[in-house]
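Quiz preparation item.
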């Protein structure tokens, strides 16, 4: 079966990528404490909080500086593993065999220097080399289901072909040839990732490139901003043919498939949001204008009503004056008589 691996080929030349290229650098410990000091008060909470908990069972911290340094290096390995696995909901902790003997007994920890992984109702002991790379690889394997259920004839055929040779050497030669033919595009790099050979980088790259690395992936990355495009595979168990790979890479490098396409979608979404905001502002302005017009009409109506009332009052006053004049005339007639 093909031994899959990561292959980086900058299109400018076959030299390593610059350290400033976002997303392609090796993860460094960020200084944040993620590994818990497990004791009788917090071990139950840690087991309930995470789907999987990884505990390092160690002896009392030694007095000699050399042994203390070795202990610190072990703790640093756990911290780096906890950092890259942070998105996987895996908790990490250390249990002192002397100070936390009761907790160790409850959890069934026996061998000092071993790592115990708690998943559901199972306890798995890790006795391998205690390095971040091997530990992360072990934990990623535990995340996968141990048994795959074959549901149809297509999956059965894929299972039967799993042991077939996929001619990895031919893929390698195609990648080299295409890279040499496109040395005028220095900002793009061809990437071939095998999750089995770089377990420490898997969570980091999945977050950066937004790609599923539980299976091999082939893509092209823009090293200036880590934008990437990945080849779609109809059958995740099979890599594409050499000709399909060559055609796809040439489409990417020629611009037919663009690593910036996702940025255009995001920009369009932002523009749509801005347009919606502008429409809302226009609607608000129209509503305000309508309110002003309505208020003006109400004011005009009120003024008209007031004028009508004033006219009615004037008419009433005139009628009263006429009545008074008639009364005066009657009085004059009485005096003449």
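Solution:
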């Amino acid at each position: 079966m093909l031994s899959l691996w990561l292959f980086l080929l900058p299109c400018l030349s076959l030299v390593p990528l610059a350290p400033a290229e976002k997303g392609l650098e090796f993860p460094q410990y960020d200084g944040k404490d993620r590994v818990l000091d497990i004791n009788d008060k917090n071990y139950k909470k840690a087991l309930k909080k995470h789907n999987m908990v990884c505990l390092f069972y160690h002896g009392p911290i030694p007095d000699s500086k050399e042994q203390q340094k070795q202990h610190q290096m072990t703790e640093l390995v756990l911290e780096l593993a906890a950092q890259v696995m942070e998105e996987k909901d895996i908790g990490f902790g250390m249990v002192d065999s002397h100070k936390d003997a009761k907790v160790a007994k409850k959890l069934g920890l026996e061998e000092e220097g071993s790592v115990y992984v708690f998943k559901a109702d199972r306890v798995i002991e890790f006795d391998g080399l205690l390095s971040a790379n091997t530990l992360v690889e072990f934990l990623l394997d535990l995340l996968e289901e141990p048994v795959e259920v074959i549901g149809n004839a297509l999956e059965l055929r894929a299972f039967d072909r799993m042991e077939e040779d996929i001619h990895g050497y031919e893929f390698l030669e195609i990648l080299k040839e295409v890279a040499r033919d496109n040395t005028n595009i220095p900002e793009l790099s061809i990437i071939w990732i095998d999750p089995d050979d770089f377990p420490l980088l898997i969570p980091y790259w999945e977050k950066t490139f937004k790609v599923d690395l539980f299976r091999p992936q082939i893509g092209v990355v823009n090293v200036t901003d880590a934008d990437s495009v990945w080849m779609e595979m109809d059958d995740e168990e099979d890599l594409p043919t050499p000709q399909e790979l060559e055609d796809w890479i040439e489409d990417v490098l020629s611009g037919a498939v663009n690593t910036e396409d996702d940025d255009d979608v995001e920009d369009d979404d932002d523009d749509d949001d801005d347009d919606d905001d502008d429409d809302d502002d226009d609607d608000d302005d129209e509503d305000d204008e309508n309110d002003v017009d309505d208020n003006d009409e109400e004011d005009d109506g009120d003024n008209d009503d007031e004028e009508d009332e004033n006219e009615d009052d004037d008419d009433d006053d005139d009628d009263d004056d006429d009545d008074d004049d008639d009364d005066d005339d009657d009085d004059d007639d009485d005096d003449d008589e």
